[in-house]
Design brief:
This protein has about 140 residues and is mainly alpha-helical. The protein has helices spanning about 5-20, 25-35, 45-60, 60-65, 80-95, 105-115, 120-135. The chain has a single domain, classed as NusB-like (N-utilizing Substance Protein B Homolog, Chain A, Orthogonal Bundle). It is about 70% helix and about 0% strand. This is Transcription antitermination protein NusB.
Length: about 140
């Protein structure tokens, strides 16, 4: 089973969303469930999936601190929809830690994730936050 980077980002989003609800879940078992719902046999986890999920989890506090300045005064991280926050964390992680992913690609992929897992308001919100962050070049 060969996944595109886009499909891997979708699986990373799903894994992070599930881990947000159950932080003690076993990552590897979760990956197997997401990648192989029929449980025919264990399959190899794409390295980039592990990179994204583990990286976002390990750097979550730092990523949240980077996201916060781009929220308007009336918004805080705990008020954001979980889907939007997870998409932003993935994007900020890629922008800061994954040199092989150009900023334009990270932003576009975040918008695509928002289209897939949220609504148009969220897409505009995520696009605005990332646009400001990239323009500011603080990440």
């Amino acid at each position: 089973m060969s996944l595109t980077r886009h499909e891997i980002r979708e699986k990373a989003f799903q894994a992070l969303f599930a881990l947000n609800a159950n932080p003690d879940a076993d990552e590897n078992q979760l990956f197997q469930q997401l990648l192989n719902p029929d449980e025919a046999a264990e399959i190899e986890i794409p390295a980039y999936l592990s990179t994204l999920v583990t990286g976002v989890r390990e750097h979550q506090a730092e990523l949240d601190a980077q996201i916060q300045p781009y929220l308007s005064r009336t918004w805080s991280l705990d008020r954001l929809a979980k889907t939007d926050l997870i998409v932003l964390r993935i994007a900020f992680f890629e922008l800061k830690y994954v040199d092989a992913v150009p900023a334009k690609v990270a932003v576009n992929e975040a918008i695509e994730l928002t289209k897939a897992f949220s609504d148009d308001r969220s897409r505009k919100f995520v696009s605005g936050v990332l646009g400001k962050a990239v323009k500011n070049e603080s990440i």
